Amino acid sequence: MARIAGVNIPTNKRVIIALTYIHGIGAHKAKQIADKLGIEHTRRVADLSDAEILQIRETIDAEHTVEGDLRREVAMNIKRLMDLACYRGLRHRKGLPVRGQRTHTNARTRKGKAKPIAGKKK
């Protein structure tokens, strides 16, 4: 099992698919990394040599923000918005949708499970 950026990537998958297991690397960046290093898209992680895995690791470390650093950066950006008390920060603070979605119906992912309100009694 290859370990890149603190993540154990699966050995039986293709290189491009396996790289997407790293937080911050999607399909597009994975293809760019493979093309830059001259690794075929059809090759499996198990077929890579130690030198190729080392090249991938060094490329990701040098050129991409991934895993813990990326999570910390995103968290700091959200914290900055909340400290500024701007509209987006207030929405984050209240746990409501940030990007203009409707909340009259839907928005259950952000708002959580619906809480019943005591209705009128006859």
Summarize the structure.
The protein has helices at residues 15-19, 27-37, 50-63, 67-84, 87-94, 108-111; strands spanning 2-4, 7-9.
Structure description:
- The termini are far apart.
- The longest helix is centred in the middle third of the chain and has 18 residues, at 67-84.
- The chain has six helices and two strands; from the N terminus they run ββαααααα.
- The chain has two domains: 2-64, Helicase, Ruva Protein, domain 3, CATH 1.10.8; 72-111, Ribosomal protein S13/S18, C-terminal domain (30s ribosomal protein s13, domain 2, Irregular).
- By secondary structure, the chain is mainly alpha-helical.
- It has helices spanning 15-19, 27-37, 50-63, 67-84, 87-94, 108-111, and strands spanning 2-4, 7-9.
- Strands 1-2 form a two-stranded antiparallel ribbon.
- The CATH class of the largest domain, by name, is Mainly Alpha
- The figure for the number of domains is 2
CATH topology of the largest domain: Helicase, Ruva Protein, domain 3
Mean pLDDT: 92
Name given to the CATH architecture of the largest domain: Orthogonal Bundle
Strand sequence of the main sheet, in spatial order? Answer: 1-2
Number of strands: 2
Count of runs of 4 or more consecutive helical residues: 6
Oligomer: single chain
N→C terminal distance: 66 Å
Uncertain segments of ≥5 residues (pLDDT<50)? none
Q: Rg, please?
A: 21 Å
- What level of helicity do the residues show? 40-55%
Biggest sheet: strands, sense, closure? Answer: 2 strands, antiparallel
Q: What keywords describe this structure?
A:
122 residues, mainly alpha, Helicase, Ruva Protein, domain 3, 30s ribosomal protein s13, domain 2, 2 domains, two-stranded antiparallel sheet, 6 helices, 49% helix
